Structure prediction request, 76 residues.
Amino acid sequence: MVQEVKRRDGYSCLVCGHIFDFEAPLQKDYQVSKDAVRARAVAVNTMEGSDEKLVNLMLYTDCPQCGVTNECKEVL
Prediction:
């Protein structure tokens, strides 16, 4: 099964500290939940896992309070 979204709950803005939830769609037609801010996922590179190939992602989301773009890493 293909993963549709990367979600973070309770994320704290690195600048102003505002706490919010965000979702980075991994499928073109995914609809972001009403309680979450839309984020962007960028595939950076791949690495070999124990059973499969893993993808390093950078997630970018704009804080709904101060507007600053926050960046965080995820593995898919």
